[in-house]
Amino acid sequence: MILNFFPSQGWESWDIEYRPLIPEGMPVLVDDDLRFEDGPAVPRPAAVVNRWLRELPASGAPAPSSWENYARVLKEWMEFLVEHGVGLFDSRARLKSALSRYAEHRAAGPLKARFAATTWGQHMSILSLFYRWAINEEYATAEPFTYRAARALFAGTGRAVKVNLAVCRTPKPHVTIKYLEPDFTELFRKGLRGLAPDGSQDTGFHG
């Protein structure tokens, strides 16, 4: 699969009346045979992905760097599916099986293919956005993800959310201790020296 970026330079010579509405630098995915459809009104999956990409600026992703990231995530997922004979809009059972294999590939496959948990989470979030859009637009009838209901709290207000179970949980950063109370500091120093809290030798200290 080929990833290109749309240039509008010279559009006046394209035998069209108006400048294309495609944003400058928008990623465009093309199958290796350079075809976008298999017949009249039968768009290939790459053409559907391209439509989704073109709508990103109006869907909360105005930065070109985000467009490229989203396109690369879909490209890698589609190439993986093709290698295993699974369609982008296949049945739920086959998509779930493919996602399972993809998770194993990204976690324990070749070193260059492995993802950290945070990278995997980003990819799953992007794929989830795409499949929800594709289902709403009636391109897809199923997605590979399973969700659970949860409640998110922000500024004291709770709201119901869906949590994608394919996203790996990542450990929270440890709290940084910015200062120590004087009494704890003294106790800590005594402990390091092998002393008991009263300053006497700690017989249980082993260095």
Walkthrough of the structure:
It is a single chain. The chain is elongated. The mean pLDDT is 88. The chain starts with a strand and ends in a 15-residue tail after the last helix. It is built from 5 helices and 4 strands; from the N terminus they run E-E-H-H-H-H-E-E-H. It has 207 residues and is α+β, with helices and mostly antiparallel strands. Helices cover 38% and strands 12% of the residues. The protein has a two-stranded antiparallel sheet with strand order 1-2. Strands 3-4 form a two-stranded antiparallel ribbon.
Describe the structure concisely for a colleague.
Helix content is about 40%, strand content about 10%. The chain is built from five helices and four strands.
Q: Which geometry do the CA atoms define? A: elongated
Name the beta content range. 5-15%
The end-to-end distance, rounded to whole angstroms, is 61 Å
Give me the count of strands: 4
Helical proportion, percent range: 25-40%
> Low-confidence parts lasting 5 or more residues at pLDDT below 50?
none
Secondary-structure content class = alpha+beta
